[in-house]
Amino acid sequence: MNEYEIFRENLAYADRMHRQIAGIREAQYAQIADRAMHAWRGETDTDRIASLYLTGDPFTTPEDLSLFHTNLCSPDFARFCAHFRKDASAENLFSAEKNSMMDTLPDGEDGFWDGEELEAEEYARTAYMQNSYTDRAWRQFSEAVPDMTAEYFSSYPAVCEEVYNGRCRYCILPLYTSTDGQLISFRKLLGKYDLKIAMETEVELADESLMRFALLCRRLPGHRKEASPRYMDLSVVLPENGSAGNLIASCEALGAAVSAVYTIPLEYADSTAEFCLEMYVSDADLAGLAVFLEASQLRYTVVGLYSMV
Fold it and tell me: Which of 21, 32, 41, 88 sits in a 20 to 30 Å window from 195, CA-based?
């Protein structure tokens, strides 16, 4: 056996050992999660899960530990959280007001709704600045949202204020171009007016580049099982000892595929920024991801849980 063959054999052996160790770890996680749920009599919360991971003792209370100063943003903890997903519904965990998302739709509607009850004539009133590209985006959105109507305004902040103040159900903003990338000034408006991405669409511009538009509302939309969201937009402010690499690896450990990462400076901090992740989540464990984000004590916002039209 030559040196190259020995090298390959050693790597293969290391891979086998890695898989065996990972299997042992997962079996331990499943065992302790089962014991904890039995001890908790099915009544759990994410602080308890974090305490259990740190101590292995289901009777340790979160008050006994300083969870706020503990860095739990790791792929290992994410996989641990996945063992509690059977008691969580992603549709109920991801919401503007955490743990309050609706998971049903009004009778006769397909696709999604945002959990609010408005008069019929206000149901799909949509605000935007009119031009040929936004008109095209509106038409594409209107194919997915029944009875959508258009309201025109003279500025982008005015468009956002219509939704923020409840006068329109939706608004339309551009968020990305294939030539310039993320349009940070528009992305900041989502945070300022607490808007959520309901769906996105792409429009071809005159120079054959693409502009991506978002249909925005006040709350994350609920989805039918047959119309599950394909994408997630997540914003996170990492702790002082946090790592963007660990955040990405944690999301991907639960099946999310991170497709874009960018930062937005925070207005109230000189050197701190929020990390924005765009993820493909069709194959992700969304319930496990929801448990992880809460249990890890991260400052996060799910800005969008949506599909492209």
Answer: 88
